Amino acid sequence: MIKIAVCQIKTTTDWEETMFRAETMVRDAAANGADFAVFPEMFNCPYSRKYFHMYAEMGHERSLARLSAWAKELGIYIVGGSIPETGDGKIYNSCFIFDREGRQIARHRKVHLFDSQLPGLNICESATFTAGSEITVFDTEFGPMGCAICYDIRFAELFRPMAMRGAKIIFIPSQFNTVSGPGNWEMLVRCRASDQQVFTVGAEAAYSEDVRYRCWGHSVVCGPLGNVIASCDETEQVMYADIDLDEIDRARKSLPIYQSLRRDVYPVAE
User: Fold this and answer.
1) 15-31 vs 61-74: helix axis angle to the nearest 10?
2) Could you confirm whether 150 is annotated as catalytic?
3) 268 near 25, Cβ under 8 Å?
4) Would you call 110 a catalytic residue per the annotation?
5) What is the pTM of this model?
């Protein structure tokens, strides 16, 4: 059994305050026996173009140093949500993952940037970020795991290769908003779990009235048949879920999707 702790944090404009909240959550997760602590997209700064640039200029290294130190001290895997990462003169929306020794074992740069004109909310991530170009699967003591970020979830094509490469759990740090969240968020996390027959961990940020971008919250963990294992409301909290990886084999025996793939009709990315 694997215990997941989703840290549904409410980000503030004060970096030290936000990181204090994050550390408190990780310590709570470790004290409750969690194997993984998972943060949401842009957990270390408000979701705003203004802050993306500001925090990128401050450098991403100090946030990573905190995550690494917590992982090592507490002996817990940390899926570090995402932060503005600078590299080669560009800014990426990146998730860094650390093992129980505090070693960085993966980095996922958001592949699909969210450019959208929602009612009352125009978003253009491509004005700030450069898109990533890699499918992320990393090894753990429990087997391979995958990672995607927020808008990536709408592209099943990205998820099939992760499952084909052996990913048992796919972590999805996100900041779905109160416009698209109510109708789309849980449905998409359940769909990606069901169509790939894996576990999905949708880690959202908490709702806050203090920022213009209102995050939906409602983090959710789903099983390989699309069933909801754990979910929560919009408030700041640590949500726990117990995962039995044997459920994947049972799901794939009852519904043998991978045996039924029609490679003669359509390509199957691996």
Assistant:
1) 20
2) yes
3) no
4) yes
5) 0.96
